[in-house]
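User: Teach me something about this protein's shape.
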Amino acid sequence: MANLLKTVVTGCSCPLLSNLGSCKGLRVKKDFLRTFYTHQELWCKAPVKPGIPYKQLTVGVPKEIFQNEKRVALSPAGVQNLVKQGFNVVVESGAGEASKFSDDHYRVAGAQIQGAKEVLASDLVVKVRAPMVNPTLGVHEADLLKTSGTLISFIYPAQNPELLNKLSQRKTTVLAMDQVPRVTIAQGYDALSSMANIAGSQLLEKFLQLRF
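Assistant: First, the predicted structure itself:
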C-alpha cells in the first residue's frame, strides 16, 4: 500500500502532490491565523431584536370541539400563573365545563371570557386537539388564527398534511406537543407520557372494579 501511494503521488500532475514524493520526511511549516470569539463577543456581534413584553401578548384558550373530548388546555391554576407573569389570557365560554372548571373559576384566576372567534385570534393559542372544522361557526379553526401567530397543540403532522398547509398559509408558528422528544430533559413538556400514565392507571382501576 505504501509503494502504491508513492507511485500515485510521484506520477500525479498536481504540483502539491508531486512535491510530496521528493520531500521525504520534510515538514513544511505554514502560519495559520486562529481566531477565537467568546460567547459575549458573539452575542454582541449578533443583531439584537427587541422582544415583545408579556403584557402585550394575549393567550387564548378555546373550547375543544372534538367529539367526547373533555380536556382543556389550561386550568384556572395555569391561567393564574400566566397572569402573574403579565400575560393577558382569554378563555372561550364553557371551555372548562367538561373538566369541572366553570367560567367563574377562570374569571377569578384573571382571565377574560370571550367567544370562539376572539379567542382563536389571540397572539398565542393553546389547544389540546389539532384545529378542525367548527360545526357551529361553519369554518375551520385554522382559518380563524391570527396571521403570524403561535399555536401550541397536538398536531400529528404526518397524519394532517392539509392542516399543515393551512397553518403555513397563515404563517403560524406551531409547537406540536406530540413531537416533543420523550427524554429526561424535556420531561416537563412531555404530554404524551402524562396522558399514557393517566390512561394506564384508569385501566387498572376499571379492571380491579370488574374483577372484584
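Now, about its shape. The CA atoms of residues 149 and 172 lie 5 Å apart. The beta strands are 58-61, 88-92, 112-114, 124-126, 133-134, 139-140, 150-153, 173-176. If you'd like, I can walk through any region in more detail.
User: That's plenty for now, thanks!
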